[in-house]
Amino acid sequence: MDTYNINKTGTGWALTKQGSARPSKTAATKEAIIDLAKEFLSDKTASLRIHSVDGRIQEERTYPRMADPTKSPG
């Protein structure tokens, strides 16, 4: 499973695959980049970490939702 991060940049927000230097998507606002990430990750199995302005992980999501390991029995 790939991991993607949403981070604040100097000019806006970026969606970047972990280990990659170049962003997959960029947007001016956090809300816009989250919407772009939903669309971008809709056909992938991935973990998305949404960071706050100070760089801390604010939220973590799994795509598709059924791939979330915390939802598995046992």
Secondary structure category: mainly beta
The profile of the biggest β sheet is: 5 strands, mixed
**Beta-strand percent range:** 35-45%
Q: How large is the count of helical segments? A: 1
**What is the helix fraction of residues, given as a range?**
10-25%
**Measured on Cα atoms, how large is the radius of gyration?**
12 Å
Low-confidence stretches: none
- Which sequence of SSEs, written as H and E, runs from N to C? EEEHEE
Major sheet: order of its strands?
Answer: 3-2-1-4-5
- Structurally, how many domains make up the residues? 1
- Rounded mean pLDDT is 91
State the total count of DSSP E strands: 5
Report the end-to-end length measured between terminal Cα atoms.
Answer: 20 Å
Form type = globular
